[in-house]
Structure formats: C-alpha cells, structure tokens
Amino acid sequence: MVKIGVLGLQGAVREHVVALEQSGAETVIVKRHEQLNEIDGLVIPGGESTTMRRLIDKYDFMQPLKEFAAQEKPMFGTCAGLILLAKNIVGYDEPHIGVMDITVERNAFGRQKDSFEAELMISGVAEDYVGVFIRAPYVVEVGEQVEVLSKHNEKIVAVRQGPFLGCAFHPELTDDHRFAQYFVNMVKESK
Ligand code: GLN
Question: Which of 1, 31, 91, 158 has the lowest tally of Cβ within 10 angstroms?
C-alpha cells in the first residue's frame, strides 16, 4: 500500500484524507517536515496560499518540500496548493515551491463568481466530473512538458507535469473520488 501525506498546515485537510483512504491509500497528516521522509506522495490542499506560505516558512518546510519534488515524488496541489506548485504567479516576483512549469493567476474567476460548481471533462479521469471552485485560480500559461487535463470556459483548470498534478478546484469536497484515485494511481506507479 502507498502512503500519502496531506500537508496539514492550513486548509481543507481532513476531506483529502477521507478521499485518499477511500481510494486505497494509507494517509498521514504532515505537520513536521521530517514526516516527508515517510511518504510516497503529498497532497497540498486548498486554503490561502499566502497563509500557507507563511506557515511553510515558519515550520522550515520550504527546503524539504523542494527536495521532495527533486526526488520526483508525486505531489498534488489543489487550489491554493496549485498556486504553491506554480513556477510563476501573475503579479508576484517569486514563486513558492515553484516546481510546475505553469503560470497561475490567483482569484482569477473574479468576484462575481467567488464560488461555483461546474461540470468538467478531465482527461484520463472522468467525462462528467463536478468541480467545486472557491476563489479559484486558473492557469494562464503552460510549458511544453505540461499536459492540460481540463478546461472550464476555455480556462485551464487541471494540469499534469510528470509526477506533479494540480487543479484549480476542490476535488475533496464532493463524494466523487475519481481524481483522488487518479493521484493514488500515480503514486503507485511511481513506487
Ligand atoms: N484564493 C486562494 C489563494 O489565492 C485559493 C483559494 C482556495 O484554495 N480555495 O490562495
């Protein structure tokens, strides 16, 4: 069985644990960077990327997270987690973890659409997946190595680059665990 961590500094942590366990993974909530050594893959949940970044720095997670990525261990960033994985963030000079060759824009769907649901086609995952978007970012540009998995209204909302997976919505907030299952399969294949 694979063991998948959920970064537990802030945000929607428990829901990811449930989705991953129901998809056949063992899980652990990661609150100390030493725990990264025990896991085969990591989910970075939604929440607030700036707050999460502060906590990443406060608890000395940045270097260990970059090393985890450098070992090509699978990482799945959802919403704020996607922002943390991006190499470029519109309006910011520096990225956070910065391992995915994408440019993201925060809160990009605008104030009118603070949160909404949309039916998505996600390549390799589902034809009829309901995505829950909450002050969501979207991806404005992708590098050559990045596979676009899903778009909503022409905006890129799910991407994969080798061991790194990201989406703008919250897959943990519905009972449809097919996207979690996709990540669990990625982790199994990488092991
Ligand atoms: N708007 C948040 C940010 O910029 C992300 C929202 C979310 O994770 N639901 O970090």
Answer: 91
Give the active site residue among 15, 96, 105, 172: 172
Provide the domain limits for residue 121. Answer: 3-190
For residue 38, indicate whether it is catalytic: no
pLDDT of residue 128: 97
List pLDDT tens digits, range 104-145.
Answer: 999 999 876 789 999 999 999 999 999 999 999 999 999 999
CATH label of the domain that carries residue 104: 3.40.50.880
Q: Rounded to the nearest 5°, which phi and psi values hold at 103? A: -110, 125
Measured from the CA of 78, which atom of ligand 1 is nearest? 8
Angstrom CA distances, 127 to 59, 124, 150, stand at 40, 9, 10
The pTM (predicted TM-score) of the whole model is 0.97
Which residues fall within 8 angstroms of residue 117, CB to CB, at 6 or more apart? Answer: 130, 131, 132, 133
Is any ligand 1 atom within 6 A of the Cβ of residue 80? Answer: yes
